Amino acid sequence: MAAIELRGLTKVYPGGVKALDSLDLDIPDGEFFALLGPSGCGKTTLLRTIAGLETATGGAVVIGERDVTGVQPGGRDVAMVFQDYALFPHMDVTDNIAYPLRIKKVAKGARREKAEEVGARLGLDHLMDRRPGQLSGGQQQRVALARVMATQAQAFLFDEPLSNLDARLRLEARTFLKKLQRELGVTTVFVTHDQAEALAMADRMAVMEAGHIRQIGTPVEVFQRPANTFVAGFIGSTPMNLLDGAVRGDTLEVAGCKVAVPIAAEGRLTDGEKIVYGVRPEYMAYSAGPAEGVLSGKVAIVENLGASHLVTLDVNDVLVQAVVPEGSEPAVGDDGHALPRRDRALVYRDGELV
Amino acid sequence: MAQATSPPEVVKEDARTRRGYSSDAAGLGSLRAGAFVAPALLLIAAFLVFPALWVLYLGLTNYRLTGAAAAEPEFVGLANLLDAVFNPTFWNSTWLTVQFVLGSAVIGQVVLGFTIAWLLRDRAGPLKRLVEGLVILAWILPSAVVSFLWVALLDRDGGTLNALLGIPGFPWLLDHPMLSIIVFNTWRGTAFSMMLYGAALGNVPPSHLESARLAGASGWQQLRDVVFPHIRGHILTNLLLISLWTFNDFSPFLLTAGGPDGRSEVLAVHVYKVALQSGELGYGAAVSTIILLINLVVAVFYLRLLRSKK
Amino acid sequence: MTRFVLGRIGFCTLIAVLLAFFTIPLLWLVTAPFTSDPSYEVKVPDFTWDNFQAVVEHPYALPSLYNSLVLSVGTAVLVVLLAALAAYALSRVRLPGRDALLYALLLLSSIITGTAAMVPLFQLAVELNLIDSHLGLILILTGGLLPAAIFMLKDFMDSTPKSYEESARVFGASPLQIVRHVVVPLVRPGLATIGVWALANVWGNFLMPYLLLSDVEKQPAAVITYTLYTEGGQANLSMLSTFGLLYSIPVVLMYLFVSKKYGFRFHGGIKR
Ligand SMILES: Nc1ncnc2c1ncn2[C@@H]1O[C@H](COP(=O)(O)OP(=O)(O)OP(=O)(O)O)[C@@H](O)[C@H]1O
Ligand SMILES: [Mg+2]
């Protein structure tokens, strides 16, 4: 078990793509760390650079106090699960799981034993003689996990290990993986582009954009106080309302309405400056009648979310969304009013949280 | 949701160039990779590239297999090439080669191959396997064996063909040597075209054929309007490849040895006869150079075609 | 309805003509070896084994099959080995000038044919003292087959995902271990295809051994067959037919093996 530190890590691909731009990151020992970001932002590159499959253009990778920047992948004592699992199609499950031990020159008998032990732990006992081609996606994923566990590496690196599973199985696997990591206590870096997955599983997470880390924090911090409008827009199953506005004395003018200054921004704003006002649809109180500090408009769309509804209001030609509990949803065309929670609303200046 | 792609600093390259950048997956390193490639390249250089270059040089000398010119060949410039150009036997061979390629490859193999593929297109079972098996058998048997089978077939006295036609004593190989080798090569090489067109026809979407049939198109109209546009690329590929192969085919030698009186002496046989039987290596090399150039033109055409398809 | 019947009749006639065209030349090969004292005529055989006896006793027949075997196995092994190494390196490592090299290889393999290169190859063999040398012929044949083999194998390797190798690499496998444990098993079908292709190619090749081997004891079956029917006045038909059959059987077996194992997948240009 070991901590992972990245110091000014930069990766430029031949051809000039700067996939990682001077990243600094500290992942303490035993942490379940999620790397989240849109496609092409450099998550896989970061993971592969930690593993040593890509050589860093600049900066350093430190694993367990050892600078491994120039070390071959095999010498870094990390284990990786690839997005396509990379199970060897010509070996059965036992041989696949035992492969890392074969490289370490563990005797054949001991190898088998270990593979069977790990396989049993992941519920693979009756599948040990099959080839990967004869396994379902979920089973393959568990074999890949078993193979990684058999290495007893210092750190695990997972590249979107759940993205090949169907939606249901993915939920199950999420819980399973999280529980497993708890039990093993191995430092784990987990790449995903699914924000819900990151929020659900990670101890801490980083949100990346175009080779930069835009925010690091616990899922709660990242969800409640996105550090910038990029993260604010990326996190959350319904995106945050990000509305252009301006400071008018001790209130804000947003979409032609007057709303109160959020608690977090009190005393930090200057009169007349332009800001972006952010509030999640979940943190809006919807009502049919007007009140002080509401965003008022006509109901444009009502979408069913299951236990609640997502109502989109047209507020002076700006679209504002609010989540309305079931039973009290309005009809399209009604007048509607949404009151943001002062303790949850946020203000961004030049894209950064105030 | 905000799942949009966040562009990195440099414009994203398209998938093709990106795949081109295969990084070193097994950690081989350039040095070891070079060592992996070197032995193969060495052999290719020694036994393929060097001979090709040497043939260019030889063509410019009066090299002979035996005699004074064998010991000290002299540089004669373009004399050999000019010799060839003014040599009626060379032109005779060239003309025979054109007949051979057009007759057996472009017409024989393509038409027959396509016909078989079309007849068997949506059939399965023993009939298809039998026909395909026989056609492929003709293709894979050693050329020395099949050549002799045709010698037996066409024999003037006891040959099966004359027995079947009831014309004993008709000397096919003497009276119609070109026709014989053309039919022989059609028989021998049809398999490739048949398999290529079989694969191509399998790729014609059945829905296109069905909609044409629903619109009342006849068999010929279906072929013209649906099938040909779909397999045009395959036809061209096929034509270029089999022309190249037929042009370089040496097996007519096994059947007629170029005779009688050079009446079936295609270029491949011509080179052998002048260079290795008569020993005029310089002149033979000049003809080889011409063959190389023709090959080059066809191959470049073919590679262009491959590229534009990708 | 009549149109349908006419269509059927047309189809059947065409198929019958095709079958006849492709079968008749082959008939002699399967009847004559079992006929005592065969002529060019196709006769119902009387199932004698005497002809096989004659082949066994012939001084050059069986040795020539052995020579064919040596040449084709030797070439196939060399081609597979060298092409696999080269194709793997070219597929996985970005060597400078790789694309140009591959293009050149493809071009070379299609333009430099035995016909075009027979004069200099003969010369080269004379100069290097490779006439009548099996090894020399194997090297020359290998050089001729390698470009196409590299090209086909590289295509094959490009289509196998790299994550297998990367995964092994993260577990600490050395490059050679990766090649042995992962790459070779993964590309085995490709290697087998190339091996069979090279084997069949050399087994049937006539021109090169005819040019470069003048010693009868070293000549492969292709050349011996030709000698049997061109030299010495009246061809010995019982000998020829039986020997031809023996010489052909391995090719047919190989074809059956390939089509059974891999389904005779269509490989453009598998045979030159
Ligand atoms: N081998 C390579 N050569 C050149 N550019 C590359 C290479 N691999 C990745 N890139 C580029 O680097 C950037 C980051 O790619 P990366 O694969 O790390 O993204 P990602 O965040 O994992 O995306 P995804 O979610 O789609 O997997 C992209 O712009 C990509 O085009
Ligand atoms: Mg990725």
UniProtKB/TrEMBL annotation, chain A:
UniProt keyword Translocase, yes or no: yes
Keyword entries, A-Z: ATP-binding, Cell membrane, Membrane, Nucleotide-binding, Translocase, Transport
Pfam families: ABC_tran (PF00005), OB_MalK (PF17912)
Domain ABC transporter: 4-235
InterPro entries for this protein: AAA+_ATPase (IPR003593), ABC_transporter-like_ATP-bd (IPR003439), ABC_transporter-like_CS (IPR017871), ABC_transpr_MalK/UgpC-like (IPR047641), Mo/tungstate-bd_C_term_dom (IPR008995), NA-bd_OB-fold (IPR012340), OB_MalK-like (IPR040582), P-loop_NTPase (IPR027417)
GO cellular component, one term: ATP-binding cassette (ABC) transporter complex, substrate-binding subunit-containing
Keyword presence, ATP-binding: yes
UniProt-recorded Gene Ontology molecular function terms: ABC-type transporter activity; ATP binding; ATP hydrolysis activity
Name of the protein in its database record: ABC transporter ATP-binding protein
Organism whose genome encodes this protein: Nonomuraea deserti
UniProtKB/TrEMBL annotation, chain B:
Membrane spanning residue stretches: 36-57, 96-119, 131-153, 165-187, 281-303
PROSITE patterns: ABC_TM1
GO biological process, one term: transmembrane transport
Topology versus the membrane: Multi-pass membrane protein
Organism: Nonomuraea deserti
Chief location of this protein within or outside the cell: membrane
UniProt family annotation: Belongs to the binding-protein-dependent transport system permease family.
Domain of life: Bacteria
InterPro entries in the record: MetI-like, MetI-like_sf
Name by which UniProt lists this protein: Sugar ABC transporter permease
Record-linked Pfam families: BPD_transp_1 (PF00528)
TrEMBL record, chain C:
CDD domains assigned: TM_PBP2 (cd06261)
Positions of the ABC transmembrane type-1 domain: 65-258
Gene3D superfamilies on file: MetI-like
InterPro entries: BP-dep_ABC_trans_perm, MetI-like, MetI-like_sf
Residues that span the membrane, as ranges: 9-30, 69-90, 102-122, 134-153, 190-212, 237-258
Keyword Transferase belongs to the record: no
Cell compartments where the protein resides: Cell membrane
Keyword Cell membrane attached: yes
Keyword field: Cell membrane, Membrane, Transmembrane, Transmembrane helix, Transport
Similarity comment: Belongs to the binding-protein-dependent transport system permease family.
The protein's name: Carbohydrate ABC transporter permease
